[in-house]
Write a structure and sequence with these properties.
The complex is a heterodimer of chains A (235) and B (405). Chain A is built from ten helices and ten strands. Chain A has 235 residues and is of the alpha/beta class. The model of chain A has no long low-confidence stretch (mean pLDDT 91). The chains are: A alpha/beta (235), B mainly alpha (405). Bound molecules: adenosine-5'-triphosphate and magnesium ion.
């Protein structure tokens, strides 16, 4: 469904991605793990066009999407839960959700999706008129995920959804990730520091180091791999 | 409250002021008799005066801080003005009263007053336009007066060359304003904050300099005179009648502006502007087209300035580039900031205060700007969010929240 071929991205003169290859098939959850500054967020930003790659190819459903503008890419069905939540603090929960559905005009189905989201996260229903900035960190993360879902994505990019959350909330978030994947057949590309949890929920995983993909395997194999256990699982 | 500390601080302030103002207030060189006069008693007055002012200032600041604390504890954090506005029993009669006042105003007061009110209403309209750009989209535009000039010159020149009437040019002026908004918006799309402010300031000046120097096109500094006032179905009106007519045109335009801006603010594009102000990357991830959204803000903001300019030209019947200096941009920005960025009623009040106050302070003509400046400074210290802070910024959820907090 998504294929990155030898993608190289830069911030000015700094090369953040040194030619990476990643494949994601339809209906899969794949995870990308790696140390801080490895280039995981940059990978997601390159896919969704905010940091367009300088060379290499990105194909979505067989069509090249590198070089498209972010809004075109979103309209194809790719949406992102950006790192650090980035919800709109002065807009209410409802308005944040509506921003997620920015490219959609079908009122009825937007309404349905909001109901679905309020089922997933009942707390958001209670907070619907509260300004996003006044939500707790966990609630903000739920809102960020919901906002991305409002675009009805076929491919959902998630950047560290468990960042800074209490263990119980982390567990809930990962449950939701699996649920979204199973119920809607949404393909999920998950970037995580929490490698243990991420590999448990994912089907396959990629490992990144300083701008390169150094390993890729099924999630189960990675979980039992000695090197991975030492470097990313702290065991 | 009257602690020694406060007294000491105020005392120091007064000493400092006596020292600062010493050369101008105390020493006077009498060039006729070639002597230096020492007016020591003045120093005494300065000392007393600044001591009292400083003391009051400190007292108010103190009260303000305690007021904020009280509010945080209290349940209802909505400011009084907002609560009044949301209460229908208050807001409906208030609207009716304003409507009646607006209707009888030009018949009760003199022509001079009506003209002042027209100018103030023009500022209400263009300040509401600037509010879209600055208050909602968060793009600090210091060259906004350029669009006002574009509107005014559009009417003057189209009328001069092609004899087009006010009513034909009004929508054309709006369109040309929007067009210039887009043209000037394009180069500054990547800029934010201070950089954007400086570049837009430059654009404003460029437009003015072009108008000033391109004699064949705009008649240079001497401007364009004898611009016709708005026609009323071809009937000849006396000066007084035309003024009233223009007044009611402005009332209509103001209502139209309020209606449209209100609709815009609560629409998806309005929320996209606010979202863009808050987080550009998140907006892009939502599929919001940054370029298009910013350009619509510039264009829709400039539209009102264009229309305001057309009415301005028709009202004064004479325009020249001197009416469109950077000072004008600053004043319009003041209306927005003083009134309360993003709040429609706030911006209207701000524009009225800023345009009407100096007129009524004319009696103190020398000190008028001084007083005006002082009022602005005091406002910003005690109500930093503007006269009426935008409702959006306040917490709206009531009821169940405690259970889950
Ligand atoms: N806006 C930017 N400007 C310049 N360099 C950047 C920018 N964003 C990221 N980088 C650099 O690119 C490299 C990759 O950053 P990236 O954010 O992709 O890392 P990451 O793998 O997501 O790390 P983390 O796990 O800490 O989020 C880093 O060396 C970083 O310093
Ligand atoms: Mg990251």
């Amino acid at each position: 469904m998504l294929e990155l071929r030898n993608v190289k991205s830069y911030y000015g003169n700094i090369q953040a991605l040194k030619g990476i290859d990643i494949r994601v098939s339809e209906g899969e959850i794949i995870t990308l793990i790696g140390a801080n500054g490895a280039g995981k967020s940059t990978t997601l930003m390159s896919v969704c066009g905010v940091v367009p790659p300088r060379s290499g190819e990105i194909l979505f459903m067989g069509e090249p999407i590198h070089g498209m503008s972010p809004n075109q890419i979103v309209s194809l069905g790719i949406s992102q839960v950006p790192e650090g939540r980035r919800i709109f603090p002065y807009l209410t929960v409802m308005e944040n959700l509506d921003m997620g559905a920015f490219l959609r005009n079908d009122r009825v189905s937007i309404r349905e999706d909001i109901d679905y989201i309020f089922e997933l996260f009942p707390i958001l229903a209670e907070r619907r008129n509260q300004a996003g900035g006044t939500l707790s960190g966990g609630e903000q993360q739920m809102l960020a995920i919901s906002r991305a879902l409002m675009a009805r994505p076929r491919l959902l990019l998630m950047d560290e959804p468990s960042l800074g959350l209490a263990p119980l909330v982390v567990k809930r978030i990962f449950e939701i990730i699996r649920k979204i994947n199973e119920e809607n057949n949404t393909t999920i590309f998950l970037v995580e520091q929490n490698a243990n949890q991420a590999l448990k929920v994912a089907h396959r995983g990629y490992v990144m180091e300083t701008g390169r993909v150094t390993m890729s395997d099924t999630a189960d194999n990675l979980l039992t791999n000695e090197g991975i256990r030492k470097a990313y699982l702290g065991m | 409250m009257f602690s020694i500390e406060e007294v000491k601080k105020s005392f120091l302030v007064s000493i400092w002021f006596m020292f600062l103002t010493f050369p101008i207030m105390v020493i006077r060189v009498n060039t006729i008799y070639k002597i230096v006069e020492w007016r020591w008693e003045r120093m005494f007055y300065i000392g007393i005066g600044t001591f009292v002012i400083s003391f009051i200032w400190r007292y108010l600041m103190r009260r303000k801080e305690m007021g904020v604390k009280k509010k945080e504890v209290g349940e209802d954090a909505l400011p009084l003005a907002q609560r009044l506005l949301q209460n229908r029993r208050v807001s409906y009669p208030a609207i009716a009263l304003v409507a009646v006042l607006a209707l009888i105003y030009p018949f009760v007061f003199s022509l001079y007053q009506a003209n002042i009110m027209i100018t103030a209403l023009i500022y209400v309209v263009i300040a509401l336009g600037l509010n879209i750009v600055v208050g909602l989209a968060g793009l600090l535009d210091l060259g906004y007066v350029a669009f006002y000039a574009v509107g005014a010159y559009a009417y003057a020149l189209l009328n001069y060359h092609f004899g087009l009437s006010f009513w034909v040019v009004l929508p054309i002026g709006a369109a040309i304003g929007a067009l210039f908004g887009i043209i000037l918006g394009f180069p500054v799309l990547r800029l934010r904050g201070d950089y954007l402010a400086i570049v837009t300031l430059g654009f404003g000046e460029i437009i003015r300099l072009i108008l000033e120097n391109w004699n064949e096109f705009s008649f240079g500094p001497s401007g364009i005179a004898n611009i016709p006032r708005p026609s009323f179905f071809g009937i000849d009106l006396s000066l007084a009648e035309t003024t009233r007519f223009v007044y009611f045109i402005m009332i209509g335009l103001t209502i139209f502006t309020i209606f449209v801006v209100n609709r815009l603010e609560n629409s998806r594009i309005g929320r996209a502007w606010i979202a863009l102000r808050e987080d550009e990357v998140a907006c892009q991830a939502m599929g919001i087209d940054k370029t298009k959204t910013k350009l619509t803000a510039f264009a829709l903001g400039a539209t009102w300035a264009g229309m305001g300019g057309v009415v301005f030209a028709a009202q004064t019947t004479f325009i020249n580039p001197a009416s469109f200096t950077i000072w004008e941009s600053v004043i319009i920005l003041c209306c927005v900031v003083l009134g309360g960025m993003g709040s429609i009623i706030g911006v209207i009040l701000g524009a009225l205060v800023i345009k009407l106050l100096p007129e009524y302070l004319r009696e103190f003509s020398q000190y008028r700007m001084l007083l005006f400046g002082a009022i602005l400074v005091i406002m910003m210290v005690f109500r930093p969010g503007g006269i009426i802070t935008s409702v959006r910024r306040t917490y709206q959820f009531k009821g169940k929240s405690n259970r889950h907090a």
